[in-house]
UniProtKB/TrEMBL annotation:
The active site is at E368 (nucleophile). Belongs to the glycosyl hydrolase 1 family. This is Glycoside hydrolase family 1 protein. It comes from Salipaludibacillus agaradhaerens. InterPro entries: GH, GH_1_N_CS, Glyco_hydro_1, Glyco_hydro_1_AS. One of its GO terms (cellular component) is cytosol.
Length: 470
């Protein structure tokens, strides 16, 4: 391995979570209902507004009350950074209030202060797979331009409150989820089996504007803030060397890259404009929107990476599908898969890092990566998750090679350092953490925390700045 393949001093090792997947206390201290609170079967399912269906998001792992103990465990592992999200509905319960909820702001003050006590850098996602439900019911979600101002107000409130404590921010988690799960990403409601592409792309435009205005507002409050975008990155390979497969892979990647293109460069690429015209989609833009996008470009590219995908023009190959983050894909015959069908491709992470850095020449931040698996708590309290260690080791090795390639990498916050509710399936048996939570998908269990074998392994990785991976 090249001598250049070393993580820089100050590399931000840590873990990442989302408020709606671990906090619980879903109506405590003035919190309003969010889109996650009515999504009992995960982000890809239809919402249940009756609230009668059991929803594990309501309880999470009770981080709202256990954050001190959990953060102490992160500190024991040596975390340099912790990526968390702020629940919009704790700050503005309905989304359109004039005054924020002080109890919600005070909760995140306590969490952030607890992180800083251990010299753990908070990395804050402003909106992560949740938004106030009232903004859906009253305004129709992000297709309504009024939400841009509501979000800008919310973001300014956070920047004004926490700008002296938090340097790293992200505007929207996996913003490209709006294409695949419109209710989760944009608060859009469609009848089962239906999609309104006009509403989806109009919503995406409003998300872009909101992100840009937030970046501008944050920099005005504190020029030292580092505000990034965050995409679900899914590199696509052609199934064969057939030129048509190669172009299909290019097109498939563009459905992801358009989001980082607009937020990083500040304008719509020609290929997006062409696609909208071909699909007879007219995005309503106001005078000055172009200027807003140009003024609000992000400082870095945050992204998740779990798997790669394959593109093919052969109908026979299309039949062989496998699971994945947000959507199904064509199975790659050269890769193994997790229990949920997510194909494991560490080399793809190096490829993604190079693809994004070549494209933007901006720092990258890997803010999600990990392996969901069914872990077994043994009678002696041990959890032997060697499969997770193998997965993470292979990906970190490829990250190191990407650094050797010349990629400017800020940090790595693996997904779910403590077991939490799965976003895609709303269950707890799909575990990612270094810390086991004794709680099942029916909400039963002691909620006690146990260290997995991977806990000490990751602790050593951090202590050696990624030099020792055995």
């Amino acid at each position: 391995m090249s001598q250049l393949a070393r993580f820089p001093e100050g590399f931000l090792w840590g873990g990442a979570v989302a408020a709606n997947q671990l906090e619980g206390a879903y109506q405590e201290d003035g919190k309003g209902l969010s889109t996650a609170d009515v999504s009992p079967n995960g982000i890809m399912s239809s919402p249940d507004f009756s609230m009668e269906t059991f929803n594990l998001y309501h309880e999470g792992i009770d981080f709202y009350h256990t954050y001190k103990e959990d953060i102490a465990l992160f500190a024991e592992m040596g975390f340099k950074a912790f990526r968390l999200s702020i629940a919009w509905t704790r700050i503005y319960p309905n989304g359109d209030e004039q005054t924020p909820n002080e109890k919600g702001l005070a909760f995140y003050d306590r969490v952030i202060d607890e992180l800083l006590k251990y010299d753990i850098e908070p990395v804050v996602t402003i909106s992560h797979y949740e938004m106030p439900l009232e903004l859906v019911k009253k305004y129709g979600g992000w297709k309504n331009r009024k939400l841009v101002a509501f979000y800008e107000c919310y973001a300014k409130t956070l920047f004004e409150r926490y700008h002296k404590k938090v340097t790293y921010w992200m505007t929207f988690n996996e913003i490209n989820v709006s294409l695949h799960a419109p209710f989760t990403g944009s608060g859009l409601l469609f009848e089962d089996g239906e999609r309104n592409e006009q509403d989806i792309y109009q919503s995406i435009h409003h998300l872009f504007l909101a992100s840009a205005l937030a970046v501008k507002a944050g920099h005005a409050i504190n020029p030292n803030l580092q505000i990034g975008c965050m995409i679900a990155s899914m590199i696509t390979y052609p199934y064969t060397s057939k030129p048509e497969d190669m172009f299909k892979a290019l097109q498939q990647d563009r459905h992801t890259l358009m989001f980082s293109d607009v937020q990083s460069r500040g304008y719509y690429p020609t290929y997006v404009k062409n696609y909208l015209e071909e699909q007879n989609i007219t995005v309503q833009m106001e005078d000055g929107d172009d200027h807003i996008l140009r003024e609000g470009t992000v400082d870095y590219i945050g992204f998740s990476y779990y798997m790669s995908f394959v593109a093919t023009t052969d109908p026979e190959h299309l039949k062989d599908q496998t699971g994945g983050n947000l959507l199904l894909g064509v199975k790659n015959p050269y890769l193994k898969a997790t229990e949920w069908g997510w194909q494991i491709d560490p080399v793809g992470l190096r490829t993604v890092c190079n693809q994004l850095y070549d494209r933007y020449q901006k720092p990258l931040f890997i803010v999600e990566n990990g392996m969901g698996a069914v872990d077994k708590l043994e009678d002696d309290g041990l959890i032997n998750d060697d499969y997770r260690i193998d997965y993470l080791r292979a990906h970190i090795e490829q990250m190191k090679l990407a650094v050797g390639d010349g990629v400017d990498l800020i940090g790595y916050t693996s997904w779910g350092p403590i077991d939490l509710v799965s976003a895609s399936t709303a269950e707890l048996k799909k575990r990612y953490g270094y810390i086991y939570v004794d709680r099942d998908s029916e909400g039963k269990g002691s909620n006690k925390r146990y260290k997995k074998k991977s806990f000490d392994w990751y602790k050593n990785v951090i202590a050696t700045n990624g030099e020792v991976l055995d």
